[in-house]
Amino acid sequence: MKSNKEIVSDFINATNQKDWDKVLTLVDNDFVRHSSSEPKQIKTNIELVKFHQAELETFPDLQETIIFAIEEGDFVAARINFSGTQLGQLINFPPTGKKLTADFNCFFRVTEGKIKESWVEYDNLNGLIQLGHYKIN
Questions:
Q1: Prediction pTM value
Q2: CATH class of the 4-130 domain in this structure
């Protein structure tokens, strides 16, 4: 039986490979994603796949890499690196062709071998600065 950290790693790898069938086997049907960023909440594994597919329209070369992960009981805390070039629309921001490289925090709840819930937080201001959408004087 795989550890919860291995399940999370498999999920990140399947997402990077755009293996949506595999993602659906790793994420519970009633999965919930929480975030202070849009979308603030995703309520099914299908919605999660659609979110990642839309993200790929903005960042077609998107790759996520786990920097480290800590497992305790049903929970996995992970620091993950996001890397991608903005070649599509990002909310109201036009494509810039610039690469975004940013680390974010994600907490996963894994039960019975499936990811049931996640909490994701990004430094959105840093991302907008890297992409050239926001300048600090």
A1: 0.94
A2: alpha beta
